Amino acid sequence: VVIKGDQIVKSIRVEGAEPVSIARDHEGFLWVLDGKKETLLKLDGSGIVRFSIGSSGGKEGQFSDPADVAISSRGFVLVTDKGNSRVQIFNQSGVFLAKAGPTSGVKKVLEEPVSVALDSEDNIYVLDAERHAVVKFSPDGKHLGDFGKEGKGPGEFRGPRGILVSNGEVFVVDAENNNVQVFDLEGNFLRLFGAAGGETGFSGPTSIAVKDGTQFFVSDTGNGKIKAIRMLYTPEPPSTV
Predict the structure, then answer these.
(1) pLDDT tens, residue by residue, 60-103
(2) How confident is the model over 170-206, as pLDDT tens digits?
(3) Which residues, 6+ apart, have CB-to-CB distance to 209 below 8 Å?
(4) Residues in contact with 102: Cβ distance below 8 Å, sequence separation at least 6, in sequence order
(5) What is the pTM of this model?
(6) Coil, strand or helix: which one is 78?
(7) Distance between CA atoms of 201 and 216, rounded to whole angstroms?
(8) How far is CA 218 from CA 142, 150, 204, 209, 210, in A?
(9) Cys staple from 112: which of 58, 130, 229, 240, with CB 3.0 to 4.6 Å?
(10) CA dist 98 → 59, 86, 94, 213 (Å)
(11) Are 203 and 218 spatial neighbours (Cβ–Cβ below 8 Å)?
(12) Widest CA span of the chain, in angstroms?
């Protein structure tokens, strides 16, 4: 569904597919995850399918319950392959390039990756619902660390669902805590916004997108709405005059 302002201006229907995530690349193509067939589709601006990638399975280029798709600044396509506990990376032609996860030595780095985002340096941030954590990788898939844990307090998650990186900050949507928590790129907690509610609060939010550096859109799934939120950045008061 294409929305301009607060009005639906166009709908794109992909017959036989069940879209679970969508991303738009720099050339205007749409990359859509089909949860029904467990494939990744590349569509042009009018909704015509150019080609599809993958099938059900655990091999390279195959998916098991894929959940999210994102595009890097260099045009690489990243898919959270939730059932296989990994993130797969493809080029614009759909050729498999690399993966992040599932193991680092004897430790399992990813358990249930549900969402993925990238910073300006193309570092990869993966939201892991099972571990209640954000896992950070370098552009070539090296594990750099993670942050977050299960709980209700600041910097803690109960139902993490969506992630976004914007202006050097990491935004995490928590469906159970009904809020969005904000961290710096090293994982230090900065602030949070949102609470349970109807008109001004959230009910099971699942994803977040950014229009510019200050306006964000949160899918308030439980209330059946998309809510536009304007962030106000206030500088610290001067310590001396």
Answers:
(1) 999 999 999 999 999 999 999 999 999 999 999 999 999 887 66
(2) 999 999 999 999 999 999 999 999 999 878 899 999 9
(3) 164, 216, 217
(4) 84, 85, 86, 108, 109, 110
(5) 0.91
(6) strand
(7) 15
(8) 30, 22, 11, 7, 9
(9) 130
(10) 12, 10, 12, 30
(11) no
(12) 65
By the 10 Å C-beta count (0-12 exposed, 13-18 middle, 19+ buried), 107 is classed as exposed
Structure token pair of residue 174: 């928590």
Length of the chain: 241
Q: Which residue is associated with the tokens 């015509």?
A: 48
In which residue are the tokens 């809020």 written?
179
